């Protein structure tokens, strides 16, 4: 009951064609497709520029920590305020 079925979508398409006409609807869908393509292209361009501009992560540049030699390890104390 909550979703749009094929009949709902067909009815919406017919109503849109009646109000907008066949030419306007196809122009609108073409413009929407161009907008989506340019949006995707912009996302991939930003990702490539970000990857090239960012230095390597700090964790990757650090040497790994040495394991602790203490045998009497205790869990960290919770210093959050009690509510």
Walkthrough of the structure:
This protein is mainly α and 83 residues long. It has helices spanning 6-20, 22-53, 58-61. The chain has a domain at 22-54. The protein is 61% helix and 0% strand. The chain starts with 5 loop residues before the first helix and ends in a 22-residue tail after the last helix.
Number of strands: 0
Low-confidence stretches: none
Structural category: mainly alpha
The radius of gyration is 29 Å
Shape: elongated
Termini gap: 43 Å
What is the number of helical segments per DSSP (H or I, 4+ residues)?
A: 3
Q: What share of the residues does DSSP label as strand, in percent?
A: under 5%
What is the succession of H and E elements? HHH
Main β-sheet description: none
- Helix share of residues? 55-70%
Would you tell me the overall average pLDDT? 78
Characteristics:
mainly alpha; elongated; 3 helices; 83 residues
Question: Which helices and strands, and how do they pair?
Answer:
Elements: H1 6-20, H2 22-53, H3 58-61
Can you summarize this structure?
This protein is mainly alpha-helical and 83 residues long.
């Amino acid at each position: 009951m909550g979703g749009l079925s094929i009949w709902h979508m067909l009815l919406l398409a017919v109503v849109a064609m009646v109000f907008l006409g066949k030419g306007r609807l196809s122009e609108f869908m073409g413009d929407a497709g161009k907008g989506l393509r340019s949006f995707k292209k912009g996302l991939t361009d930003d990702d490539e520029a970000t990857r090239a501009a960012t230095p390597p992560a700090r964790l990757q540049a650090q040497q790994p920590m040495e394991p602790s030699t203490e045998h009497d390890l205790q869990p960290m104390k919770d210093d959050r305020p009690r509510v």
